[in-house]
Amino acid sequence: MAQRTDPLARERARLLMALAGLLTTGTTTAMGLEVSPYAGYRFESDTNLFDSPSGSRDADQLHYATLGGDIDWNHARQHVTANAEATRVLYRDNDYLDHTDYRGNIDWDYAIGALLSGTASYTGGRYLNGFENRSERDKDFIELHNPVVDMRLAITPHWSTLARIGYLDRRHTLATERRYDRTEIDSRAELTYETTPGTRVTLGAARIDGDFPQRGADDALAHGFTQHTPYLRLAWRYSGVSSFMAQGGYTWRNDSGDQASDWSEPSGRVAYIRDVSGQTQLMFMAAQDIYSADSVAANALRDRYGRVILQWRYGPSLALASHYEWHREDYLGTTASNRRDTTQDYGAELTWQPTDRLALTAQISRMDRDSNLDDARFDKLVGGVGLRYTLNPQPRVEFGPERP
Question: Within a domain: residue 177?
Fold first, then answer.
């Protein structure tokens, strides 16, 4: 009798063979163009896959196989970088969630003469939405499109102006989540005075015009919003090892709809970075922001948060990064207006690079969310190991956590 092969083992073997095929691919260089593919694999164990309250949690093990590539091109005063990757995610127990995530971005840093410069960028992707604010356990993908263009004009050696406009299109694929589809036009203008290199004072104003295209006339949530934020920012590098940034402003948000509300709150952030030594860097950050809530029946979310990051490198091949984050989230408007969450997230990642092209990682993190609503509380522990092989020894563009 023939022995049955585990379908997960077959697919995992197929993905690993595809990853191995990249190891023989070279880097192409022509006219300042560098193209470098990379491959990665990560195994992860999650004690609470669906971010459920105690008593209803499900643990699972996940396999991530990534194929991607970097592009770096320099020509005269133009510089273009791009990254694209696809990640296949397999689940040991909840295999109905097996899927492929796609992400990509391109940035063009341009200069026209000595006075005009700026950046044109595009970020896009399709990836699985998290479960921390969803009761359903069905797959919901976020489809993201985000082009941004900014232009800086140097008026004098000390004074400059900046204009920026961006468009965000963020959509859900699950029918029950489409009421949270959102489009935004983000525009801002800044006037900056730079006293010495690294020390700048900026006066700016930002405006966001948002729309929720899937909300009908009978939906209690806002159908759109306009948000204004004037702000003042100070960036100061006052020694060779320390830098400080502070931004303060006030945000007005006006919602549209039958049960719309208007909100106004102080907003801003402070950050301090200290190079403790040639091998150690410490960063502190605290902020308050207002933005749209996602997958929660509220018009807006006020987020007060703090972050500490410690990065330490032992020699050229061993590095440790650890973090602690604290969030206090207050939901504003409609049925979730009484919800208040407090979240703590902390963890560490150890990276060993035996060669410039190969990196081995081990990470562990824990998240605890407390709430005045019982069904919004959860905690989880996630740990994993991984490897990444790249034909470009320089650090690539990393995808940061997407903000709503």
Answer: no
Q: Per DSSP, what are the bridge partners of residue 211?
A: 183, 224
Place of tokens 């791009």: 82
162 falls within a domain = no
SS3 for 317?
A: coil
Residue 394 phi/psi, 5-degree rounding, is: -80, 150
**Residue range 351-372, pLDDT digits in tens:** 999 998 999 999 999 999 999 9
Dihedral, CA of residue 28, residue 32, residue 35 and residue 36, to nearest 10 = 90
Asked if 404 and 292 touch (Cβ cutoff 8 Å), the reply is: yes
Put simply, whether the predicted model's pTM sits higher than 0.70 gets the answer yes
CATH number of residue 15's parent domain: 2.40.160
Q: Which of 150, 184, 155, 186 is nearest to 169 (CA)?
A: 184
d(CA 28, CA 71): 10
- How many structural domains is the chain composed of? 1
3-state secondary structure of 245: strand
